[in-house]
Amino acid sequence: MALSKTQILAELVSILPRHCIISDEETQRPYECDGLSVYCEMPLVVVLPESVSQVQSVIRLCHQYGIPLVARGAGTGLCAGAMPHAEGIVLSLAKFNRILEIDPDARTARVQPGVRNLAITEAAEDYDLYYAPDPSSQIACTIGGNIAENSGGVHCLKYGLTIHNILAFDMLTAEGELVTIGHEGLDSPGYDLLSLLIGSEGMLGVVTEITVKLLPKPEKAQVVMAAFDDIEIAGEAVAGVIAAGIIPGGLEMMDSYAIQAAEEYCHAGYPTDAEALLLCEIDGTTEEVQEHVDRVEALFHQLGAITVRTSRNEAERMLLWKGRKSAFPAVGRISPDYYCMDGTIPRSRLAYVLKRMNEMSAHYGLRVANVFHAGDGNLHPLILFDANVPGELEKTEEFGGKILELCVEVGGCITGEHGVGVEKLKQMHAQFSEEELAQFHRVKDAFDSRGILNPGKGIPLLKRCQEYRSIESAK
Ligand SMILES: Cc1cc2nc3c(=O)[nH]c(=O)nc-3n(C[C@H](O)[C@H](O)[C@H](O)COP(=O)(O)OP(=O)(O)OC[C@H]3O[C@@H](n4cnc5c(N)ncnc54)[C@H](O)[C@@H]3O)c2cc1C
After folding, report:
1. pLDDT tens per residue across span 203-215
2. Beta-bridge partners for 206
3. Which of 422, 418, 343 is CA-nearest to residue 148?
């Protein structure tokens, strides 16, 4: 039996304090989208519970009446994963923002899902420890959202993605049962459900508590900045560094639009006449860092860099990263709108993909600023457009779709770290066969038989697959 909004509110009032429920349109407005604001929808109601048992009651209510439920962290996601369902409830985890325990001996932290990514590192600093995955949004995004998207960041090349840095978490299933997934040891008995659930985009359960791994802070870190007058040569240099057997702490690339925008925004000392910039962080013991910095500097010269400069102190290092980490908002200042794509390719195909993207950019008449985790082949082309120009958004979406298909064509995939959400449903067809998509539906069904958790996202409906394939084959 489907409930009306009034009936849902009456049920919610019986399980939550009134101040935990937002039902008027104006106060709900900030929840209508995530960071990808071209997709938005108003929910029936937003709830902000304060205890796990309250979350459990909300989930049980949704399960009983088949009400769509969308969990939400900070809403910084870039694939419309946290976009509300028009007939559903948004479950904000914002009040679950406590760091419960730091165990310096075990090098772990137990935290609630609404804790900001950066807050974990800040809390661990007293013990000379830190939490490695560092999305550029780390000042705002939550660890619950990071788990749902398997988020990455500058340091994931060496230290792994979210999945490599989580030991265990508590999760409420779609029926409202509280289960613990994973183990504080290195391995756990049974199937590796952590691998299945991390990156499942809020579609298989709601995470309520997490144990993360902490790493000792490296003794020393330096950034080598190399400027190139050709973006393809810079792409080849990325492959060259890794081929030389060096695994940098981070290896990031920016093209000329991004360099100029970031430099204007935060004066990081980037050479604004360069076509491409690589930032290569070397960390470890003082001796290791010295040896690798010397090798990387020599390699960059050998691989065609026009200038190479290395940070001399911590302030310089932080400033070089500040430019990179502010690149998205900085690009926002040189264009009325931008659309951030996210795909992954084999590193060896970087130069080829950049060349093809330049061709596509000319074809569509839309500029592209490239800012990305070059070391792990994770592209973030930012397509610059103006949503007020009729048809430009549609053209941008088509261009973005072609970039993702190019990623698949060269042996990569349509997601790097932002997830599928609503945004990439179409491109799932380019990546997976109908049989594979049917298997994904079976997995979803096994965890959420009523389909209440984040419905309509992540996996395209099979009927749509058939329609899509017949359109594509008719082309
Ligand atoms: C400027 C900018 C830079 C960014 N840089 C990066 C980057 O470098 N790397 C990167 O990986 N991402 C990046 N992102 C994307 C985004 O920050 C990440 O995807 C982040 O993990 C989202 O976290 P959130 O708390 O905002 O989650 P939300 O956007 O609120 O939600 C994301 C997904 O997680 C689900 N979810 C949230 N909490 C829970 C929970 N407790 N249990 C189950 N499901 C849950 C939601 O339903 C949704 O599907 C960037 C975004 C912006 C705006």
Report:
1. 999 999 999 999 9
2. 172
3. 418
| Domain range list for the chain | 5-92, 99-216, 220-329, 335-425, 432-474
- The 10s digit of each residue's pLDDT in 320-330 is 999 998 888 89
| pTM greater than the 0.85 cutoff | yes
The ligand 1 atom nearest the CA atom of 202 = 44
% of the chain beyond a pLDDT of 90: 83
Q: How many residues does the chain have?
A: 475
Strands 89-92 and 166-172: unpaired
Residue 48 CA to ligand 1 center (angstroms) comes to: 18
Residue 432 has pLDDT above 70, yes or no: yes
For domain 99-216, is the CATH number 1.20.1250.20?
no
Q: To test ligand 1's pocket by mutation, which of 31, 38, 59, 72 has the most ligand atoms within 8 angstroms of CB?
A: 72
Atom of ligand 1 nearest to the CA of 71: 47
Residue 468 pLDDT > 60, yes or no?
A: no
392-412 exposure pattern, b = at least 16 Cβ within 10 A, e = fewer: bbeebbebbbbbbbbbbebeb
Tokens, residue 25:
């349109």
Residues with CB under 6 A from ligand 1: 34-35, 70-78, 81-82, 93, 113, 135-137, 141-142, 144-146, 148-149, 151-153, 201-202, 206-207, 328, 417-418, 454
Mean pLDDT for 301-317 is: 96
Which residue from 151, 201, 212 has its CB within 8 A of the most atoms of ligand 1, so it is best to mutate? 151
- 324/153 Cα distance (integer angstroms): 11
Ligand 1: nearest atom to the Cα of 201: 49
Distance 350 CA to ligand 1 centre (A): 26
Cα(81) to ligand 1 centroid in Å equals 8
- What does CATH list as the number for 5-92? 3.30.43.10
The answer as to CATH 3.30.70.2740 being correct for domain 335-425 is: yes
Residue 167 has pLDDT above 70, yes or no: yes
pLDDT tens digits, residue range 12-40? 999 999 999 999 999 999 999 999 998 99
- Do β-strands 178-182 and 166-172 pair in parallel, antiparallel, or remain unpaired? antiparallel
